Amino acid sequence: MAKQRMDGGRGRRPGVVSSAKRGGPGRGFWLALGLAAILGLGALGYLTTRPKVTATTIDPNLPPMKAEGYVLGSASAPLEVIEFADFECPGCGNFATLTEPDVRTNLVNTGKIRVRFIDYPLPMHKNTWDASLAAACANDQGKFWEMHDVIFNNQDRWNGEATSRPRPVLAQLAKGIGLDMSKYEACMDADTHRAKVQSHLQEAERRQVQQTPTFIIGGKLIPGALPYDTFKKLIDEELAKVPATSDTAMKPTDARPSMELPVDSSRRSPARADSSAKKAGAR
Predict the structure, then answer these.
(1) 66 near 259, Cβ under 8 Å?
(2) Omega before 270 cis (within 30°)?
(3) What residues pair up with 222 in beta bridges, in sequence order?
(4) Rounded to whole angstroms, what are the CA distances from 251 to 66, 75, 174, 186, 241?
(5) Predicted confidence band at 106 (pLDDT cuts at 50, 70, 90)?
(6) In angstroms, rounded to a whole number, what is the distance separating the alpha carbons of residues 230 and 240?
(7) % of the chain with per-residue pLDDT over 70
(8) d(C-alpha 12, C-alpha 10), whole Å
(9) Which domains does the chain have, with CATH numbers?
(10) What tens digit of pLDDT does each residue of 87-103 get?
(11) How far apart are CA 119 and CA 193, in angstroms?
């Protein structure tokens, strides 16, 4: 028995057995492999479920129109804010429902600013064109802003994730704000305002708007769903530049500012740049 025990240990160096056990892949290797597998599955899931981006075809047969948008506020307000927004954009919905009520109460209704809303239907949002057309048809009956509000407040009912048939939902919203439904439905069926919405889209592209919402405040192009405090700070900075005299307030007939401003002066022709300079001096 003693011989067997001695033979069993003959020639074994300390650590030989434990080294053999440690010779395979260690714990760190398997953790790294598992993490790589999880990341790979996550990336694959994103690629298979992400919204498909489709280009919006511009109809060359539609009549050219000037992008005017929709204005809220006094024509004599000393500052105009331009908002480019997509009705189906979640960030635009957050701004419209969380920040805009304070903007209207504290800045628009007090005559400090007016807001010009220009819809910018993005290609990845498949139902946004119907929403823009619905809002334009509501504008025919003097209720753009009412329709604007219910569209954003009910975004989860008609957007691309909720339905492939947004028009019935939008019609319910139109009926809820008291539109004449025969006129509204005729307007929608005929795509009456497609050229108008297209002009808004082209205006956003001309200004190189990269995301929605984007705001033009003074001479600055500011992207993102701004919280109220940030928005008000930007407004206060611009209002501080306006002389506090009645002569500087915009007259009702001058309420619609040129959509040419602000534009990168390097892209203008000399004639247009000179003209803009003269207008600026006249003001």
Answers:
(1) yes
(2) no
(3) 215
(4) 21, 7, 33, 36, 18
(5) very high
(6) 16
(7) 65
(8) 6
(9) 70-250 (3.40.30.10)
(10) 999 999 999 999 999 99
(11) 12
Note whether 87 and 121 are within 8 A (CB).
Answer: yes
User: pLDDT, tens digit, for every residue of 228-280?
Assistant: 999 999 999 999 998 865 443 333 333 333 333 333 333 333 333 344 344 44
Give the HSE-up count for residue 190: Cα atoms under 13 Å, Cβ half-sphere: 10
Cβ atoms 208, 264 nearer than 8 A = no
Angle at which helix 128-140 crosses helix 144-153, to 10 degrees, equals 150
pTM, whole model, 2 decimals?
A: 0.67
67 DSSP assignment: -
Mean pLDDT of the chain: 78
Q: Decide if pLDDT at 31 tops 60.
A: yes
Tokens of 84: 């480019």
- The three-state secondary structure class of 79 is strand
CA dihedral 148, 149, 154, 155 (to 10 degrees): 50
Number of Cβ within 10 Å of residue 126's Cβ equals 17
- Please state the length of the chain: 283
Burial class (CB in 10 A: 0-12, 13-18, 19+), 112: buried
* Residue 202 vs residue 253, higher pLDDT: 202
The distance from CA 45 to its chain's CA centroid, rounded to whole angstroms, is 25
Q: Which two tokens stand for residue 37?
A: 């597998």
Answer yes or no: are the C-beta atoms of 136 and 97 closer than 8 Å.
Answer: no
Count the helix, strand and coil residues of the chain and give each as a percent rounded to the nearest 5. Answer: 55, 10, 40
Strands of the sheet containing 220-223, edge to edge, are: 70-72, 113-119, 79-85, 214-217, 220-223
Do residues 56 and 101 touch, judged by C-beta distance below 8 A? no
Residues paired with residue 192 on neighbouring β-strands, in sequence order: none
Q: With contact defined as beta carbons under 8 Å apart, do 255 and 75 qualify?
A: yes
φ, ψ for residue 217, nearest 5 deg: -125, 115
